[in-house]
Design a protein that fits this description.
The protein has about 375 residues and is α/β, with parallel strands linked by helices. About 40% of the residues lie in helices and about 10% in strands. The chain folds into two domains: about 50-230, NADH:ubiquinone oxidoreductase-like, 20kDa subunit (Rossmann fold, 3-Layer(aba) Sandwich); about 230-345, Cytochrome-c3 hydrogenase, C-terminal domain (Cytochrome-c3 Hydrogenase, Chain A, domain 2), CATH 4.10.480. The protein has a five-stranded parallel beta sheet, sandwiched between helices. A two-stranded antiparallel ribbon has the order 4-8. Strands 5-6 form a two-stranded antiparallel ribbon. Helix 5 (about 75-85) runs parallel beside helix 10. The chain is globular. The structure holds iron/sulfur cluster (SF4).
């Protein structure tokens, strides 16, 4: 990477060292399931300000939690990176301007950047009665999404509401709320579901697009496979308890307090695809996630599960083979499962991604000490 290019990103990101930046890019490659050999390519793409894609970010029926999760990490590198590698031309929460001024900026960006901008949709889209249940600047959100999508180079539906309807679409769904992929049928829409979604998954998707000029491989629901390719149940830290037949029966009972499996409390981890256990949320104390704090997963990243299947029901077990990467537990009573043996070869991928995510979060803290000791810069 050219020194001038690196100096630019060093200034923008608050003094990160070249070594830590390259380490970050290697980790980013690993977390996307790519060879670390593409790290220099990622570094060039992130560091080059000329490559910053214009982004138009629309809000529909939602709580703004997706935006909040991007902007409120305790670690400053993440939001700095996101806001640095994109040119955020329109965002209804973050716009400085308001009213006609903001709407004029949106129209100008769509016109000047036709075919080049990334459209990010946050929130469900109400379609009942021609979309009158969500109006912005006198226009229906439905028409705004259709208009902005027509000139977009890439479309990302962030959060469960945009990805599959989320809470606004829950029964009886009085506004006819639906998802971006349904409204934009026929177009490729990358979905980053989660309530809220993990900001690292959004960042990785954008970095992939920046680096390779195309979107990452997605599953049948539009989710990037590098982030949503595995079931939560496969990599959950409580999985050894599940395999040993140790379950919390009630909130606050001995099993719950000892960190046993939450399956009998309605955990939907066995039917939900996401990398929550590996990538975690919040940086305080190394990160956490709902199951880690004692709450069953409610399946927010899975269409038809989160907000649709009640917590008091129990999920169907799809993959009963114990993980080869979790130390087994010897229980006083036998496991309810009889299928033992072969481990999950793919769990290795999950382990790498998890380690990568934690390392990414730790980079900032290591960068200050590394800045002092490194002679490179
Ligand atoms: S059922 Fe839930 S708590 Fe238990 S191991 Fe699976 S994901 Fe973890």
């Amino acid at each position: 990477m050219k020194t001038n290019t690196f100096n630019g990103i060093k200034a923008r990101l608050g003094g990160i060292s070249r070594r830590d930046f390259m380490k970050y890019c290697s980790i980013m490659a690993s977390s996307m399931g790519l060879s670390t050999g593409v790290a220099p390519q990622i570094a060039e793409a992130i560091a080059d300000p000329a490559k910053r894609p214009p982004v138009i970010w629309l809000h529909g029926q939602e709580c703004t939690g997706c935006t909040e999760t991007l902007l409120r990490p305790s670690h400053p590198t993440l939001d700095a990176l996101i806001l640095d590698i994109i040119s955020l031309d329109y965002h209804e929460t973050l716009n400085v301007g308001a009213g006609h001024q903001a709407e004029a900026a949106l129209q100008q960006s769509m016109k000047e950047n036709a075919g080049k901008y990334v459209l990010v949709i946050e929130g469900a889209i109400p379609v009942k009665d021609n979309g009158i249940y969500c109006m912005i600047g006198g226009k229906t959100f439905l028409s705004m999404v259709e208009e902005a999508a027509a000139g977009a180079a890439a479309i990302i539906a962030i959060g469960s509401c945009a990805a599959w309807g989320g809470i606004p679409s829950a029964d009886p769904n009085p506004t006819g709320a639906t998802s971006a992929p349904v409204v934009l049928k026929g177009k490729t829409v990358v979905t980053i579901p989660g309530c809220p979604p993990n900001p690292y998954n959004f960042l990785s998707t954008v970095v992939y697009f920046l680096t390779f000029g195309k979107l990452p491989e997605i599953d049948e629901q539009g989710r990037p496979k590098f982030a949503y390719g595995r079931l939560i149940h496969e990599n959950c830290e409580r999985r050894p308890h599940f395999d040993a037949g140790r379950f919390a029966e009630k909130f606050g009972d001995d099993g719950h307090r000892q960190g046993w499996c939450l399956y009998k409390l309605g955990c939907k981890g066995p039917v939900t695809h996401a990398n929550c256990p590996e990538i975690l949320f919040n940086d305080v104390g190394g990160g956490t996630w709902p199951v880690g704090t004692g709450h069953p997963c409610f399946g927010c990243t899975e269409k038809g599960v989160g907000f649709n299947i009640p917590m008091f029901t129990q999920a169907e077990i799809q993959n009963p083979t114990p993980s080869a990467f979790k130390a087994p537990i010897t229980a006083d009573h036998p496991s309810p499962l009889t299928i033992q043996g072969a481990g999950l070869a793919g769990a290795a991928v999950g382990a790498i991604v998890g380690a990568s995510a934690i390392a990414m979060k730790n980079l900032g803290s290591s960068s200050s000490s590394s800045d002092q000791s490194s002679k490179e810069d």
